[in-house]
Amino acid sequence: MNVTKSLAELCPLLIDEIYGELPSRIYSTLITRGRSTLSQLRHYTALTERQLRHGLAVLIQQNLLYFHTDSDTRTTTYEANSRPAYNLVRTGKILEMIETSYGPAVKDVMQSLFILGQTRIEDLKAAYKVRIRQQDEVAGATEDDIMFDGAEVAPAANKPTLPVPSIAKLNNILCRLVETGLVEVVHVQTFASPEDIFSDVSDRVMRNKFPGGVKGAKGKLEFDEAVAMELRKIRRESTTLKRKLEESGSAAKRRKLLNGAGVNSEHEPEGDPVLDPRQVIRVNYDKCVVELRNRRLVDFAADRIGTHISYVYGTVLKLLSKHIPRCHDDPLMDVGEMRDEDTRPRVVTTNEILNSLPTAVDVSQGVAKVSKNRIDIYSATAVRPNPPATDPVSAILNGNNEEDGGSDDDSDYEGPNGHPAADDSAAVDGDGGVRFAETTHKENRVDMLRQHLYLLAESELNFIRHCGEEQWTVDFKPLIQHLKEAELDVVIEHTVGRQGLRLVRILRKRGKLEEKSLPTIALMKKPDVQTKMLEMQTAGFVDVQEVPRDPSRTANRTIFLWYTATDRCISQLLERTYTTMLRCLQRLHAERRKEKDVLLLTKRTDVKGREQEVMAEGYYQRFAAHLEAEKKLLGQVMRLDELVAVLRDY
Amino acid sequence: MASLASSRAGTGEDTPKLEILKDALYEEMIQHGDQERLYNQSDLMGLNVIPKNDLSLLLNVIQGLTADQLVVAVSDSRAGIAWRYRSREDAKKYSSLPDTETQMVFALIDEAGADGIWSKTLRNRTKLHDAVLKSVLKTLEGKGYIKDMKSVEHPNKKMYIKAGLSPSERATGGPWYTDSNLDEAFIVGLEEVIYNFVKMKSTYSRPTKQPTKGVVGRKRTANDISTDADGTPTPAPVAQGPAGGRKLPAYLPYPAGYTYYPTAREIAEFIARSGITNNTTLSEDDVQQLVDILVYDGLIEPVVVARRKGYRTTRITKQEPDVPQQDGMEEEEKRLGAEPPTNGYVEAPCGRCPVYELCEEGGPVNPSGCVYFQRWLGHD
């Protein structure tokens, strides 16, 4: 990941927020100075070696560093890993997502894993054992609701009921987490930076398979493939546990048993293999992001089409993403025909969707009912076996003749019998909201489900694709591109207004346009267009290219071509979002400095927890106001993270 | 023709014969096409007026006609030198002009047709002195042969057009211009009409009196179940908050393959029928232009069903239900469509900060002392 200035400032702040100043200072040095040895670090930070080792241990425990020990010199270099550092901000969101989709018990285990960074299964179990014992001792405590609010510290012993009542249950949860891929194995190479791994692997491949060096284009290709295979082998290391579980079979069977009993019941499922207690595990952010992406897409569909349809969409995404380990393919590893089984696009059938759709989702809602003669069934059910063109150039070329582009898709279209002509009488029905005239048969669930799916597929954004009879798939890449553009459009609209957005959209669709043709297309006054364009150029949304018609390069002999570079806008927006997050956190620090005396007071053990009773009225008011501001700032950082996720991770 | 003898033209000995030929050729040219048609030499021979394909005779005849201003020579890149005829009234106008300068200027203005011609172009083409040109133009205007005009493309240029012609669409800017100004109120008004029409035709509006009890009940169960086994990804926006508190969407989308989404043509017909545009007629292309604007604005989207490009409202379920028009709301800027979505960036003070680029911790503008944050956090 490219580390820019604002990100390099943001990550240490996040670490400071959670792990304190020492790790944050070391991290900040590493991220600005690049990889360093211990002695270099001592030189840069003016910390003692003891302090440094302490801080580095924390950072490594939390997976925030890469390190590499040179085999010859026996010196170790450390390098900042910015992605997990950034991911710290997402912890709360992931936990919330886990809780809503897997239940509070699973969330509790995930939370422990987050706090521990990486842990041996043995240690995790021991920790839970202690807690369970304490729980037994304080049995009969008050009956309060369990609070699950974000990144609070793990439930201490005074919690009335533990979400994880027994070790067997813990084991079961861990098995499930490993199976879904949310938890992965930590292995030898986990802490080697991708560059190190790559150079290591290519050296080895070079030595073993190509002792005479790589010759020609074909040789280069073979070499790349061999390297990719080795890299994939290393990547698969982290899923060893998952595959072991899958091999032990009966995964589906166990799952079924579990469902039958219900997760929240006291039932303790038998037959879960006990995981190797020495195995070290940690949270797999890549998979978490896949699940977060599903949620974001469901929201997107809810916004564009409707809430009810988004329920169905959620189910489709869930089914598809079972086998998606990460959002982005690795450009080094996932190339050629020999890619991992997992990264190939998947399809789901209507029946699978129906089987997984929660029974409480009412598919009869959300879509208007109209008489059958108003529906062109051939268009609605058209099968599109090929993904849409992602190439922007061809998209622009096709953009002007959409009818032609469309006809490729529904080439098997045959007009329904006497379709529009005969319908004059039906048109009298007013706004077309014709109800099924005395429905003779109740439409069955699967038909209604299909309606939802067709509507999703019909949308301009292609939420899903009907890729074969009764088969559905999602083309994530173009869809996410739409999502990114949608977010960008929100920003454009709020910055330069709807007319500005109109101009940008025109440019996006038509490519480069001469200044004179813009007012005609946008139906705006010429001076208005010019002011708007200049405003947007300042904001970085559009740019102008000057093409002189003769060598004199005078203004009136020059063609001015406006264009918009969407990808550049997106990366610029991402950068600005980082900065905004940074400013929010900096402001939070400033707020804390301002209310230092109040906050010091609340740290006293005799005040903590009883602030309202103990503190003086004025002080308490200030404390409450500060908490309010803190909540607002941190909440805003979370919302900004949502944007970063869309622009960068999904 | 009665004025045969009085004709000034004809220098050869057999003047009467020439006059007859001239008339005959002129009549034949009128018979074979309108004033735009170009006749080259062989075309003229083909009219079978000139006996024995006598080229020199043709030359004389054409020369005579030209002198009478009845025929104009043009040089066409494809056909070489050619001629076209001019109506007798126009010819009379030309003949009545006092000198060649005036004729030249009038010819240029005549040639420019409905697009009109810029006075500066006239000067460059004719190479006349400013004062001469001015007086010539004055004469022409005085005779009522030409008039000045305004073009939307070049609002500041002084243009002339032949009297009796109305400026072309290019010069007036089509229906969107009133007195060569872009009529924005007209456009905005029409956009609203179109948008509402599309909305009415492309969404199913839920009857307002529908009892919501049953639906709410069902929804709640959906929420319960979504936290249930096997990790159903929850539809996030609904999962939180009590189900009863949520508003049901006022509009619903039609099923896929709906064939009654209005097309641009239907919209044009609707506008023509409704008589909103009382003295302007909008062609389908004009309406298409407006529809495209709405698409660019993200208010409606095209749907191709059965090779028929219809339009429907975007974000149907997010539309606010129709509120009866309130007159008091007019002063505030009305906007079409649902509330625009927002995101974390535009909500934060930095997203709309005018000094964003300058802001840095320790600088003159910094987050710690930022007034926008101050206001945003409610510290005022």
The unreliable regions of chain B are 1-12, 209-246, 324-333
Share of β-strand residues of chain B: 5-15%
Number of domains of chain B: 4
Q: If strands are numbered along the chain, what order do they take across the biggest sheet of chain A?
A: 1-3-2
Are there runs of chain A of 5+ residues with pLDDT below 50, and where? 140-159, 256-269, 391-442
Topology (SSEs and partners):
The complex is a heterodimer of chains A (650) and B (380).
Chain A lengths: L4 H15 L1 H13 L2 E2 H8 L3 H13 L3 E5 L6 E5 L1 H6 L3 H12 L1 H13 L1 E3 H17 L29 H14 L2 E3 L8 H16 L6 H22 L2 H8 L3 H11 L18 E4 L1 H20 L2 H15 L26 E2 H7 L20 H4 L11 H8 L2 H8 L14 H4 L17 H14 L6 E4 L2 E3 L2 H35 L2 E2 L2 H6 L3 H14 L3 E6 L9 E6 L2 H29 L1 H8 L7 H4 L2 H33 L1
Chain B lengths: L14 H17 L7 E2 H6 L8 H13 L3 E6 L3 E6 L2 H9 L3 H13 L4 E2 H8 L3 H14 L2 E4 L9 E4 L6 H4 L4 E2 L2 E2 L1 H19 E3 L7 H14 L9 H4 L11 E3 L10 H11 L9 H13 L3 E6 L2 E6 L30 H4 L23 H6 L4
Antiparallel strand pairs in B: 1-3, 2-3, 4-6, 5-6, 7-8, 9-10, 11-12
Helix pairs in contact in B: 1-3, 5-7, 9-13, 12-13
Protein name (chain B): DNA-directed RNA polymerase III subunit RPC6
InterPro entries (chain B): RNA_pol_Rpc34 (IPR007832), RNA_pol_Rpc34-like (IPR016049), WH-like_DNA-bd_sf (IPR036388), WH_DNA-bd_sf (IPR036390)
GO cellular component, one term (chain B): nucleoplasm
